Amino acid sequence: MLHVDKVDSLLTEKVRISASGLNEFECYQFQLLLHSDQGILRSFCLIRSDGLGEIDLDTDKPIRGTYHDVDPMGLFLTLLRTDDVQYGAYTISNSDRLLDQLHLKKRWCHPSIEQIQISRDGLYGTIFKPPGPGPFPCIIDTPVISGKLYKGHAALFASEGYLTYCFPMFDEPGLPEKMIDVDVEYLSRQIRLVQSLSYCSDKIGLYGNSFAGTIAMHLATRHRELSAVVSVNGPEAFYRETGFIKEDGEPIRCEKLDDSLSVPHNGVLRQTEVFKDVFRRLTEETSIKWERISRKVPFRLVASLDDWLLCGVSNGYNIREHLRKTGHQIEIDFVPGGHTIIIPYQPHQWFAFNKFIRILLGFGGENYLHSKFQVNVWEGHLKFFKKHLGIPQRLPDYKRETRIIMVADKNNSKL
């Protein structure tokens, strides 16, 4: 009755969902449940069967649900954090009886990828190495503002055939407790570590999301040998007191945020005016030294139109103008999403708790539009890196499971 072409697939792969043997011209509900460390996330759609008693999510438009247009991956794009909310009257069908169900597995990483843990000389991180001797074009995922190790981007880029590396910056064993105690030299040493690998080619790109984008852009001023840089909603400069590090042992000079400009919405802060103000006050001393970046380094920028943290339009425009003045090659996407444009089919996050300042920060973005453009943006990243780092060798298909068995408490999302 219920059909899914691949019950075992990589996170970025599309799957085809359909049903047959149904009553003609009746409404049926499809519901997707995602088991994660944050609980169960849900999405649903209500679709009317055709004259053959069939439904195909590739071609059929929902009558109602968490998405509204024909979209084969609409259920994945609109997962909601609704553990305690029942759909109630919105779940309209002729019967509440469960007709059929299938369990799906979405893999963060291709099974042939080897994860190599690094812990030496004060450096910590994870290498994702494709099979074979290499050399492979490489993508380094710069560390996020929490300072902790995040593997998601690196795992997905590696599944496309790239050698990838990700690493923590602080608040992990063996590292400083706070961001202000991190020196840029630590980040440069991580780049040199990757360059020393026998299976790394001379084509290395940096990828940074949010504050990690600022780090990636700043590192480009120190590493003229880089082949490409991608920044997704990266602020155009460092800022005090929560977004700066050291260089040559001294705190990087930067402007201070005026938190009085934050706007609270039901306990969640919108900070667009805060960042517009701080970047209007930038001077030569508090700006990234764009002129120090080799003109051979191309940039890809992504700026969100519904960002509650930055003003995506002005931030993206400013960075583009800095790089235009210095003669760099730039491509930029302005997208209708919130701040956290991350990876395909990652559930949208409207806000998050910042433990360092103990405040809920708003990210913005409408669920379906944001999630839809996460897919488009990711495809743009791959196209950009293939152009400037080279096309990696395609990984062989793996032996896919044909039946997924759920085990209680052992199926949460993990990497």
UniProtKB/TrEMBL annotation:
It comes from Caenorhabditis briggsae. The lineage of its organism: Eukaryota, Metazoa, Ecdysozoa, Nematoda, Chromadorea. The active site is at residues 210, 307, 339. One of its GO terms (molecular function) is fatty acyl-CoA hydrolase activity. PANTHER family: ACYL-COENZYME A THIOESTERASE-RELATED, BAAT_C DOMAIN-CONTAINING PROTEIN. Belongs to the C/M/P thioester hydrolase family. Residues 13-119 form the Acyl-CoA thioester hydrolase/bile acid-CoA amino acid N-acetyltransferase domain. It holds the Pfam family Bile_Hydr_Trans. This is Protein CBG10451. GO terms for biological process: acyl-CoA metabolic process; fatty acid metabolic process. It comes from the Eukaryota. Residues 182-390 form the BAAT/Acyl-CoA thioester hydrolase C-terminal domain.
